[in-house]
Amino acid sequence: MEHTRSxxxxxxxxxxxxxxxxxxxLTLRRPEQHNSLSEILKSELRQLISELSRDCxxxxxxxxxxxxxxxxxxxxxxxxxxxxxxxxxxxxxxxxHDWVQPLMNLEMPVIAAVNGPAIGAGFGLALATDFVxxxxxxxxxxxxxxxxxxxxxxxxFTLPRVVGLQxxxxxxxxxxxxxxxxxxxxxxxxxxxxxxxxxxxxxxLARRLAKGPTAAIGASKRILNQSFHLDxxxxxxxxxxxxxxxFHSSFHEQAIDDFAQGKPFRFDWERPQ
Length: 273
Prior knowledge:
It contains ten helices and ten strands. The protein is α/β, with parallel strands linked by helices. It is globular and about 70 Å long.
């Protein structure tokens, strides 16, 4: 794979590189701690996602973890800090969404390549993406009830929308392990791939998506993310505004020219790759 661009900021707990021109690869790099979300890692995610939200060149992003885990959730060692107060913890939880919400609304397809356990906030991180691919040994767990806490990292928003309210309650109340096979059945995962092929399959999906109209896909993503809690009239207004913009995009104009000349669309999902 060709590496074409380096990140603008130095990172220590994660790495980011642009591969194959328009595909970004974000790797959580705390393998000894199972890629748990330390304060440094959260700060670096905040910086990187902010940078990516302004990137008009990327066509897709892949997120994965180094080593045996995708992300083991919050750093529980931090919770032993005796100087913490309710007020500081509340602010810290709000700060999570300085990068979780922008990640959910990043205007490009985002794929989680879940190579191992995705626990607690790691489960939330996976569901903050658009598509979850996982290895056979990967699993998911909303582990908060084990330590007397409630979900965070956006799981109250994402999980019921993926699995339905009753299943979300069962997953959160019990804190049970959800295997890769169960995750596929519940539509938490889009597909399961052999561990040694997981990243290649993630790149294959990203490569196809990156050929599409990234700006229009990004706008569709933002509207879809709000479709469960807006009424039909509000969605019509968003639809009309977005469609009026993209009627005048270069991607659409080229597609119409190709159609008029009998040429195949350049973005055709059914066309053999």
